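pls read this protein:
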Amino acid sequence: MNRREALLGTAAFSIFGSWAATQSLASGAFEITRTDDEWRSMLTPLQFKVMRKDGTERPFSSPLDKTWDAGNYHCRGCDLKLYSSKHKFDSGTGWPSFYKALPKSIGTKPDRIKLRVYTEAHCRRCGSHLGHIFDDGPKPTGKRHCINGVSLVFKSA
């Protein structure tokens, strides 16, 4: 092997290695994984569309938007506690909104929609799509976690 072959081999390995690393991140190496068939068997068609295919429920369609009882909001996909009712507020958008998530509960990633980049929120344990995070929320964080109600299960305190 000459120096050129070694350099080309190293470059190819480097490029392939970088690509492979992004593919494993993109595939979502989460603690809880299920096949699409397993998800479909436990979710309604709308829940599957939102949670597994990054869809959005219609605004003002979730009863959780107007739920103000004390308690916590859990991931419908894996029951991880995500949001506290203490951090919920009425954003007027038609989706349950929170100014922060519970520690170590959600993951985020860029979401490109119609030439804009948003911040997607997903369950850190099972990868279920929750909604998006915006910079127009109340103090103390200034964030608005705009969450699909079908991705959540509310449990009273």
Q: What stands out?
A: The mean pLDDT is 87. Helices lie at 3-27, 36-42, 45-53. The chain has two domains: 1-29, 31-156.
